[in-house]
């Protein structure tokens, strides 16, 4: 299985900050990477697909970059509503997930 | 809008059975592959099973093969997960998710339900 390693596990920031979360794959996954946001007790919400494509309806302050084995999710102009857990998912071979990053504001 | 609502979770003893349901609305259910995923307490997400849009193709993770079965009823817009011979390590929140295309090779999870908790305990 392809292992996905996310960092940091927790991140504290202030409203208006820019934050970046990193996801590393144990082997090349091209651009087959998605990012999701999950709030407690809620369904995960797709933010980014194919590494850098913004899902319809997702605010433009979210952006994704990377290819191969290293990927980032950035949130610029952090808002109180962005307090959540973010996780990556590779879908190159089967599908596997990162362990998640909790963003505290 | 797309809605996925899971039900059927609960507390069950080891060796017991449960059937989870996922009621879908807001899209043409019969046109999309569907997945089940789970998240154990304090652990990351794990893929459990996938079924193609017409139910002809399905796969399960090795740890549940022979015990769990994914199925669907397009007349009811509902996805199922039959879970037999439950073990304590099956304890998790179970989510259903809609993919972006028809086949079992579709692995981008466009929409998820909020999940149903399954607790296996003696």
Q: In words, what does this structure look like?
A:
The complex is a heterodimer of chains A (105) and B (122). With 105 residues, chain A is mostly beta strands. In chain A, 0% of the residues lie in helices and 50% in strands. Chain A has strands at residues 4-7, 10-12, 19-25, 33-38, 45-49, 53-54, 62-67, 70-75, 84-90, 96-97, 101-104. In chain A, strands 2, 4, 5, 6, 9, 10 and 11 form a seven-stranded mixed sheet that branches. In chain A, strand 5 and strand 6 form a beta hairpin. Chain B has 122 residues and is mainly beta. In chain B, strands 2, 4, 5, 6, 9, 10 and 11 form a seven-stranded mixed sheet that branches. A four-stranded antiparallel sheet of chain B has the order 1-3-8-7, with no helix packed on it. Chain B is globular, with a radius of gyration of 13 Å. The mean pLDDT of chain B is 96. Classes of the chains: A mainly beta (105), B mainly beta (122).
User: What's the main sheet of chain A like?
Assistant: 7 strands, mixed
Strand content of chain A: over 45%
Name the average pLDDT of chain A.
97
* Count of extended strands of chain A: 11
Largest sheet of chain B: 7 strands, mixed
Nutshell version of this structure?
With 105 residues, chain A is mainly beta.
Considering the chains and any ligands shown, give keywords for the structure:
heterodimer; A: 105 residues; mainly beta; 4-stranded antiparallel sheet; 50% strand; globular; B: 122 residues; 7-stranded mixed sheet; 11 strands
Secondary structure layout:
The complex is a heterodimer of chains A (105) and B (122).
Chain A: E1 4-7, E2 10-12, E3 19-25, E4 33-38, E5 45-49, E6 53-54, E7 62-67, E8 70-75, E9 84-90, E10 96-97, E11 101-104
Parallel strand pairs in A: 2-11
Antiparallel strand pairs in A: 1-3, 3-8, 4-5, 4-9, 5-6, 7-8, 9-10, 9-11
Chain B: E1 3-7, E2 10-12, E3 18-25, E4 34-39, E5 45-51, E6 58-60, E7 68-73, E8 78-83, E9 92-99, E10 109-112, E11 116-120
Parallel strand pairs in B: 2-11
Antiparallel strand pairs in B: 1-3, 3-8, 4-5, 4-9, 5-6, 7-8, 9-10, 9-11
């Amino acid at each position: 299985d392809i292992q996905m390693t996310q960092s940091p596990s927790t991140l504290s920031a202030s409203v208006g900050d820019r934050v970046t979360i990193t996801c590393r794959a144990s082997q090349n996954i091209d651009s087959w990477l998605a990012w999701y946001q999950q709030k407690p007790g809620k369904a995960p919400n797709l933010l980014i697909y194919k590494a850098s494509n913004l899902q319809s309806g997702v605010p433009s302050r979210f952006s994704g970059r990377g290819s191969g084995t290293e990927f980032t999710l950035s949130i610029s102009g952090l808002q109180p509503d962005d307090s959540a857990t973010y996780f990556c998912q590779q879908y190159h071979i089967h599908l596997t997930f990162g362990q998640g990053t909790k963003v505290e504001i | 809008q797309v809605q996925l609502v899971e039900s059927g979770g609960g507390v069950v003893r080891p060796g017991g059975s449960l059937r989870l349901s996922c009621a879908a609305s807001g899209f043409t259910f019969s046109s999309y592959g569907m997945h089940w995923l789970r998240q154990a307490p304090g652990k990351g997400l794990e893929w459990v099973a996938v079924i193609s849009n017409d139910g002809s193709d399905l796969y399960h993770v090795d740890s549940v093969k022979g015990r769990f079965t994914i199925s669907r009823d397009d007349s009811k817009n509902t996805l199922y997960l039959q879970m037999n011979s439950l073990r304590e390590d099956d304890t998790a929140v179970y989510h259903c998710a809609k993919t972006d295309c028809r086949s079992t090779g579709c692995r981008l999870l466009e929409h998820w339900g909020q999940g149903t908790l399954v607790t296996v305990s003696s």
